[in-house]
Design goal:
Blueprint (H helix, E strand, L loop, with lengths): L10 E7 L2 H9 L7 E7 L6 E5 L2 E5 L1 H4 L2 E3 L1
Pfam family, one: FeoA
InterPro entries: Fe-transptr_FeoA-like, FeoA, FeoA_core_dom, Transcriptional_repressor_C
Protein name: FeoA family protein
Amino acid sequence: MNLAQLKPGENGIIDSFTDLEMSIKLMEMGCLPGENVLVERFAPLGDPMVIKVSGYQLCLRLSEAEVIKLV
């Protein structure tokens, strides 16, 4: 399962990434393996999404969220 498949209010734990280049950017933003991530909401048209990770809110495009694999 990847992060983009979660609905608002659902959470998961980051396991790994499917894209090496994008994973570096995501880890710099606090999306580290083992971190709990909570989906807070989606934009009115469905993209981007707002998540809570590492104690702060982060806005991700769905294409970026698809790279994050969850446990």
